[in-house]
Amino acid sequence: MRQMIIKHGHVLAPYNQLDQTADVWIRDGVIVQVGQVEERADNTIDASGCYVTPGLIDHHCHLYPLASIGLPAEAVCFASGVTSAVDAGSVGCATYAEHRPFIQRAKLRIRAYLNVCTMGLSGLPALEDVDPAHWDEGAIRACFAQYGEELLGLKLRTSAPIVKELGYAPLRAAVALAERLGISVMVHCTNPPGEMSQLLGILRPGDIMTHMYMNQGSAITENGGVKACARQARGRGVLFEAADARAHFGLDVARTAIREGFWPDILASDLTGLSMHLRPTAFNMAMQLSKYAALGIPFGALIQMCTSTPAAHMGMLDTIGSLTPGHPADVAVFRPLRRETVFGDRPYGHEAQKQMVGEMVYEPVLTLKDGEMVYRSVTF
């Protein structure tokens, strides 16, 4: 019998309505109790001064080998408190099956959005073919019929350089296909081919607009405020995701929206091998938490954005996103460090980069996946 007790940490588990000092007792990979634990365990960890949270969910990243530019999933994710990751459209219906062995063997819990384009992003840096006339609906249907428990929905990139003269026709076609299949759509909106009101008007409740704070093209803010179309879309149930990578983020857009209370529903990273650990941009999920805390969103709200909210959208709240007794012991521990840190919306050297300085970073010091220590800082 394997047991571990994490003692004296500040437990933040929004789904469980926990925001207090408590112990977490884990046995055989499962959470047994959260509260005052009187039991003893050989492996007892003192988390005084740290936050103890559910394992984070990075709802938007690109993993190797699903994408040739993908990040080394477990090395990056476990070291940043992430225990579940979602690949956001690297693979299409012709490439998903060949990558399933990697997904199934990984200790990291992985789900995916299927790119509407048959080959997904396998041709990068050449852009994908988003012409709906070239999609293989039969093969897409077959993928969801066979692998539906692993696939979360459809993904489309609708940037102007990708869709060209097709405009919003691919997005309309993707949403129509998703409607026929009974699934959701995630749309990449950076530098869209038309007005933001048009893009958001196409989306349905449960669809996701990712890169919500992008500053290329038709952002969700104008004239110092949040656009009415964005508020209306949220009122209809469209979800907004912050997934910033190297360039899908603008500090001015984020400041304006956050000041007006237009926060992300889901906080993710959009990390690839090109953006992981790159300063002063997204870096990893722990740095995303630190950046958005510096922008004024309370830490507890941020934890909800990368635990219970994405878990609910994924239909997996019975497994991940909480610290519920009986659930797998996916746990992250963060130590708040008072340290000046530069956050930027472009890499160093980019002429359009804007910066801000935060006073706090949240350092990942321990990650448990199914009760197993998959990362621990040498200082913890």
Key attributes of the depicted protein:
alpha/beta; eight-stranded parallel sheet; 11 helices; eight-stranded mixed sheet; 380 residues
Largest sheet: 8 strands, mixed
Distance separating the two termini: 24 Å
SS-based structural class? Answer: alpha/beta
Question: How big is the Rg?
Answer: 20 Å
Backbone shape: globular
Number of distinct helices: 11
Mean pLDDT: 96
Tell me the fraction of residues in β-strands, as a range: 25-35%
Tally of DSSP β-strands = 18
Q: Low-confidence runs (pLDDT<50, min 5 residues)?
A: none
Element-level helix/strand string? EEEEEEHEHEHEHHEHEEEHEHEHHHEEE
The percentage helix is: 10-25%
